[in-house]
Amino acid sequence: MYWLTWRQHRAQVLATAGLLLGLGVLLLASAMDATRYLAEHVVAGCPGPAEQCHDVNVGLSQRYGLVYQAVLGILPLLGPALIGAFWGAPLIGREFERGTNKLAWTQSVTLGRWLGTKVGLLAVLVVVAGLALSAMVGAWLSVFDGVVGPAFSNAGLFNLVGVAAAAWWLFAFVLGAAISAVLRRTLASMAVTFAVIALVFPIMVFARDAYAEPLRAAYTEYEAILDQGAILTGNAWTDPSGREIAGPPADLCPPAPGEADSAAGQQKRDSCLAERGFISMVEYHPVSRFWRFQWIQAAILAAATVLVGTGALVWTLRRRH
Amino acid sequence: MTAGTAATADPQQSGTTTTEPAERPALEAVSLSKRYGRHWALRDCTLTIPAGRVAALVGPNGSGKTTLLHLAVGLLRPTDGQVEVFGAAVGHDAQALTRVAFLAQEKPLYRNFRVREMLRFGRDLTPRWDGDLARQRLEELEIPLDRKVGRLSGGQQTQVALTLALAKQPSLLVLDEPLADLDPLARHDVTRHLMAAVAETGMTVLLSSHVVPDLEDTCDWLVVLNRGRVQVSGDIGALLESHHLLIGPADSAEAVAAGHQVVTRHTAGRQTSMLVRGSEPAADPRWIGRPLGLEELVLTYLRDPAATALPRQPATPQN
């Protein structure tokens, strides 16, 4: 079965390895270029938020943006979609389509073992590939520390580092296989897998805010919190007695004419309100919650993987026709 | 276990000592039914195929032949009833799977595999695999091992698929329309090779066909399936011996019919022909009786779906 799994899926395995290698070379080149740039533009305490770092920051940001816009921006979504479509969907879909299931499942290996071995082996490879991607992206990101905020607050990068990519890829692979067990057509399964991933991904991004109770800080600390790379989830108001309210009374501290929409006007109004005891609070998840959120998301995706996988297995075994 | 040692032991012999007692029928279906939505593809089929037979499963297109074969090899689950191969249902049981080989109608193979890789596939997935037999067969057929399966001719693909099935060393070989889509020469070749293999190993064969003349010289057991029901099941020799066609004037048909077990009756003008069971000739001298050929017998039954010829005691033909 090991040989058969390799023989039937080596194209996907090799293509994925090749693409990861290509990405690795690109990231390495980018990291080396950024490191050399830093070495040529040595300014004490840079990169960092200090005033004199401006030029260095811009130089690094450009190098970061180049790679991010070309590849990494789309990869969090495209990666799982491709894995689901090309690793998952053909696994069962192609067998049904070509009738080879009648050959494979009437050898001396039971359907359960056939499915278990194939899905198991490929799942291990998918997870390894996902972890390799995350390791590479993580190492590359570390070069831009101080210029680019932590991956935590960037919904895209968050899903490329840590264990997120591996969890997504595993989920997508099993999802693709499960869909193809039901549809029995490779192309249709690829399309549906793409659609489901495209639907689930933003839901998971939005769900992230709910993984923990957000912390609160006074509005005045807004800038500092943002600079640390926290996820801002919303804001709240408290009245002079400390109770939470929907918003300050509308007639309090009316904005000066013409200043209602400007930042300065807003700031002026906020400090006026604060003097009267109405305090604007920001709600946020601190960057220290990175791993906690990574594992929560991975656990959710793993549970979904098990659920979808078991469902498909039962479906394939029970409804044979 | 390596191919060529224990794996090449006579399956008959190993069967009688351990897994397949001789008295176990090769295939036994009891009230076997399969429904797709509202349509019953197979309904209440009870039949037995004794071990060592070459059985033909015939019936018109859509009569449920493929469904019956898929149920037998575990590719389908019955809606009702059961089917066993040497006493065990094929499905979730690797042991039972080992005893049966299946050649599906489309002769599925992995088209992007080389022939050599198809053999490796067989070796890896079946414990009784006989690699020598497979290579020898392909060599005789002049099918190059390095050729991609997709580039072989239709006849060669059938031969490769059949080789995979034979090298599995099954006790029951199930073939779905093995000769369809083949030219006459390939048809002859496949039949010849199949029969040689059967003679050598003594395995039981169940093959479906909608072309009866193909089967006349090769099979010794007949199962007729019509509209999802079993119409005839029995030893071909015994069936031919026990059926006669009586032809005579229509006016005396009633009297003659009274003395016989009439299966079907057909009157055209003043002449009546009756298919009767039993060999006694008609007492009326105006009537002539004659035996039937296999095709005639099958066609006569197929024209009258209500008629049946099933053994009262399964697996023991009356002769």
Query: What string, H for helix and E for strand, traces the elements of chain B in order?
Result: HEEEHEHEHHHEHEEEHEHEEEH
The helix fraction of chain A, in percent, is 55-70%
According to CATH, what is the class of the largest domain in chain B?
Answer: Alpha Beta
Portion in beta strands of chain A: 5-15%
Uncertain segments of chain A are none
| Largest sheet report of chain A | 4 strands, antiparallel
Mean pLDDT of chain B: 85
Q: Which sequence of strands runs across the widest sheet of chain A?
A: 1-4-2-3
CATH architecture title of the largest domain in chain B: 3-Layer(aba) Sandwich
What Rg of chain B do the Cα atoms give?
A: 22 Å
- Number of H- or I-type helical stretches of chain B: 10
Structural class label of chain B: alpha/beta
Tell me about this structure.
- The complex is a heterodimer of chains A (321) and B (319).
- Chain A is of the alpha+beta class and 321 residues long.
- Chain A folds into two domains: 239 residues, no CATH class; 73 residues, no CATH class.
- Chain A has a four-stranded antiparallel sheet with strand order 1-4-2-3.
- In chain A, strand 2 and strand 3 form a beta hairpin.
- In chain A, helix 1 packs antiparallel against helix 2.
- The two termini of chain A are 24 Å apart.
- The mean pLDDT of chain A is 89.
- By secondary structure, chain B is of the alpha/beta class.
- Chain B has two domains: 222 residues, P-loop containing nucleotide triphosphate hydrolases (Rossmann fold, 3-Layer(aba) Sandwich); 67 residues, no CATH class.
- In chain B, 31% of the residues lie in helices and 27% in strands.
- Chain B is built from ten helices and 13 strands.
- In chain B, a hairpin with a 2-residue loop joins strand 11 and strand 12.
- The longest helix of chain B is centred in the middle third of the chain and has 18 residues.
- Chain B is elongated and about 70 Å long.
- The termini of chain B are far apart.
